[in-house]
Amino acid sequence: xxxxxxxxxxxxxxxxxxxxxxxxxxxxxxxxxxxxxxxxxxxxxxxxxxxxxxxxxxxxxxxxxxxxxxxxxxxxxxxxxxxxxxxxxxxxxxxxxxxxxxxxxxxxxxxxxxxxxxxxxxxxxxxxxxxxxxxxxxxxxxxxxxxxxxxxxxxxxxxxxxxxxxxxxxxxxxxxxxxxxxxxxxxxxxxxxxxxxxxxxxxxxxxxxxxxxxxxxxxxxxxxxxxxxxxxxxxxxxxxxxxxxxxxxxxxxxxxxxxxxxxxxxxx
Length: 268
Hints:
By secondary structure, this protein is mainly α. 80% of the residues lie in helices and 2% in strands. The chain is built from 11 helices and 2 strands; from the N terminus they run ααβαααβαααααα. The chain has helices at 2-31, 34-55, 71-100, 106-109, 112-144, 156-173, 176-185, 191-196, 198-212, 217-241, 247-267; strands at residues 63-65, 153-155. A two-stranded parallel ribbon has the order 1-2. Helix 1 (2-31) packs antiparallel against helix 3, helix 3 packs parallel to helix 6 (156-173) and helix 9 crosses helix 10 (217-241). The chain is flat. It starts with a helix and ends with a helix. The model has no long low-confidence stretch (mean pLDDT 79).
């Protein structure tokens, strides 16, 4: 048994080495630009502090701080790794595909370009949507709430973890159309399946939004609403790729199956 899976383990190790090596190299590249990356990450927070400061005298003293001796260094490592993971995403997706491709049919292997390019593009769109739409609104609301009474002193270590969670959450969530397209092309789902599953999908979407976003209703809605729209777009994509057969044909097929079953019973 081990001899049968040994080639797969060797191939898996090869793909992991390439992925980790790419991430490692990209990390050092990004670390050399960690100040610019950190400035980009902190910009929405600084803008929110400035906006709140205009309306509250107490909030004018708000600032981004660190409570650890090596806090700035560890933050630089975190943001460099975050940027390296984003930059390495196309290579990592390509390695995942290279590992599973030998088990697929020729027509299924044509999914490689939509999987890599589409997956990377949608992840980037999710990150940009979170950065330019969600974080400004969310931070303005969260920081402004109670700022008339308390001075916002934001810990940079907590903020970076908070920020990366939102970015990755939206990036992964925006992969929904690519995921649906892949399953439809493999014949695993059709548009009727997705329409029938819609009521359950809404519940799952709001649960996912509650897990991946801060505990405030505004940010959760800013994830849940786009995800619901993406689910509708996914239905249209699946309909174009693998439409469900007409109900009449389904009924005819069921009738034929029943007739065949009855004939077999009579023959017995």
